[in-house]
Amino acid sequence: YSIDNNTMLHVMLDVFKDEDENFLKMLSCRQGQTEGDVIIVFVLITDKHVYLLDYKTATKKFIIQSFIAYQDIDFIVHSINYQFVNIVCRNKRNQFWLTTGDEVLSRLIVDTMCEAVDASELKIRKLAVFDDATTQKICLKKYITQECHCEESEATQEIYSLVYWEDPHSRQVKTESSSKEGKLLQKVKDPYKGPVWKPVYVVLRDGILCIFKSKSDSKPEGYLRMGGDQCVGCRRSQSSEKHHSMEIVVSKGDSLLLAASDNAEMCDWLMCMCRAVSEGMQDDGTPFSCLPCCTVVTSNKVLMCHEDVQTSFFRTLGSANIEDVTGIILDPEDTTYCLLEFDSQDTSISSEEWVLYFNSSKEKEKFSTALSACWKKQFQVELPLNSFYNITLQKRCQETSKILHNSLKL
């Protein structure tokens, strides 16, 4: 990531912890893509620290989200297919996940960190890097066994990828899946008591989050448009003062803190809010729902799921049989996404297509190669490679792809 002289000066004056610190690389990626609660993070690597930075568009400044000294790192873990990086500190409670969705980017981040440690004049031991993803593979195998109704010995994952997934023809599902209401707690500043948690009634509908004092109130105390120029993301809160809390990140640099009564309720709220944020990102009013998640191709299914990276727990969002796939559409003008075409009697599956957006052309190529191999194994012929029949759909997909890639740029 190339930065101009003014940005470099800002980083050196306002971000670096040490006066003699040297800039090595700055890279952008996402956090939370496996769980659907995406935050854009800029990874600044120096000869002494790794900084995770938020960029505030309003002030054009970087804010430190977290920073890690190399001597505090215990080890680093690559996920299956190098889709995310887990940095584990000696204090095991401090862990960081970078969901790059891109093998090249994952390797570059870790390699740069290792080179910094190797070149350091400080007596720091080499970074231990593991890429076998043993725990994740075991959990994924159990998940595939359950979803595919097969023996564990038959449960194989052909490819595991991080994607943005949308069903262009599922407008009704989109509206219902991103609507929710109920009682939550909100953290507010009391003029006398300081920060306190107070009960509120929250309604999420049509991309707008409204906060009422109670369910009977007709006028909200406040509201927020999810996505676009008001809200940039939501995530599980790192605050330890309140269990099951969520953070909604506002474009101005502020955040809204809400808490649910239990973990299941929090996950449901996060799912709905993340959908609303993803849908709200599209300023041109296109009717697509675009969901960050994982895709897993097995010998007989394509699974769309969310994964809790802390526990490797998988939650199914949708699935389709390989035998119901009738073709794949690739766009020669944009090689980072593809369309899967279906012909299925299963009412839970779109009878037309799914669109999968990847973080790089190479990741899309790995996915399409794995899917084609599974399809050929079943039918003994090549998976049909079809052309776009709908130019409007192609242009809309290209625009969504552009929005997703531009979100990683300053």
From TrEMBL:
Cellular component terms (Gene Ontology): endosome membrane
Domain PH: residue ranges: 177-278
Entry superkingdom: Eukaryota
GO biological process: Golgi organization; lysosome localization; regulation of protein localization
Keywords for the protein's UniProt record, in alphabetical order: Cytoplasm
GO molecular function: kinesin binding
Subcellular location(s) per record: Cytoplasm
UniProt xrefs under Pfam families: PH, PH_PLEKHM2
Protein name per UniProt: PH domain-containing protein
Native organism: Lottia gigantea
